[in-house]
Amino acid sequence: MNFNDYEWTIEAKHEIKENGIDIYAPANTDYFVNPVDGKVIADAPFFYKEVEGDFIFKARMSHDFVSTFDACVLLALAHDKLWAKACFEYTDFGTNAVVTVMTNERSDDANGINVDSKEIWLQIARKDNVFAIHYSFDGEEFIMARLAHLPMPKKIKVGIEAQSPTGQGGNRRFRDVSLEMRSPVDIRMGK
């Protein structure tokens, strides 16, 4: 993947690799709008490309699962209170899990499948204002984790985010990153 046309919202220590990028998640960083009090947190490094219209964005990701809510993230962002993210996260239940967060003024937070590995593929796809999140163990067969309607503008930011909301930070590894600017034929299947 060529990252020449990607930008940072907040730049972090990083290293471009032949087949991806490593991003260091600084301590106490996240994207989240508290559903209880509406407090906005938007201070995690986000490496993105501005896109217009439908897309399929995916990556193979891994990290060391040290602190609660440490995660590698795919993020589709209109602004700080309207976005969708797909996370490979160390949960507050002590599991490695696919976690999805949809934000429209306030965030929800949905733990999905637990994963007995430190690596997984995640994908986020858009068809009009429907966003789907899928996961895969092999990069070939993707399984839906979430489907939601979010009223985003046609032009948004899509990319990768590295977070450590409760921890001291750490390295997040993203490999085989790909962005296809096309409409999914079947949004539920992620194809």
Our Rg estimate from Cα atoms comes to 15 Å
Q: Tell me the total number of β-strands.
A: 17
Q: Based on helices, strands and strand pairing, what is the structural class?
A: mainly beta
Report the average pLDDT across residues. 97
Beta fraction: over 45%
CATH topology (fold) name = Jelly Rolls
Major sheet: size, sense and barrel closure? Answer: 8 strands, antiparallel
Count of DSSP-assigned helices: 0
Helix content: under 10%
The domain count comes to 1
The SSE string, one letter per element, is EEEEEEEEEEEEEEEEE
CATH architecture: Sandwich
Structure characteristics:
Jelly Rolls; 191 residues; mainly beta; eight-stranded antiparallel sheet
Written description of the protein model:
The protein is mainly beta. It has a single domain (about 15-180), classed as Jelly Rolls, CATH 2.60.120. The chain contains no helices and 17 strands. The strands form three sheets. Strands 1, 6, 8, 9, 10, 11, 12 and 16 form an eight-stranded antiparallel sheet that branches. The protein starts with 6 loop residues before the first strand and ends in an 11-residue tail after the last strand. The mean pLDDT is about 95.
In short:
With 191 residues, the chain is mainly β. It is 0% helix and 58% strand.
Q: What is the topological layout?
A:
Blueprint: E1 7-8, E2 14-17, E3 20-25, E4 31-33, E5 40-42, E6 46-52, E7 55-62, E8 71-79, E9 82-90, E10 96-104, E11 106-107, E12 110-114, E13 119-127, E14 130-136, E15 143-149, E16 155-163, E17 170-180
Antiparallel strand pairs: 1-6, 2-3, 3-17, 4-5, 6-16, 7-13, 7-17, 8-9, 8-16, 9-10, 10-11, 10-12, 13-14, 14-15
